Amino acid sequence: MTAAEIVLLAAKLSIAGMVFGLGLRSKPDDLVVLLERPWLLVRALIAMNLVMPLFAVTAVALLDMRLDLAVALIALSLSPVPPLLPGKASRARGDRSVAVGLLVAFAVFAIVWVPLAVHAIGALFGYQVGVSPAAIARIVATLVVAPLLLGIVLRRYAGEFARRIEPAVSKISVLVLLLAAVLIVASAAPAMLAQVGDGSVLLLAAFVVVGLAAGHWLGGPDPRERTDLALAAASRHPGIALATAQMAFPDARAVMPLVALYLIVNVLIGLPYVRWRARRIAARAGEATAG
Question: C-alpha angle with apex 91: 89 to 94, nearest 5 degrees?
Answer without folding.
Answer: 40
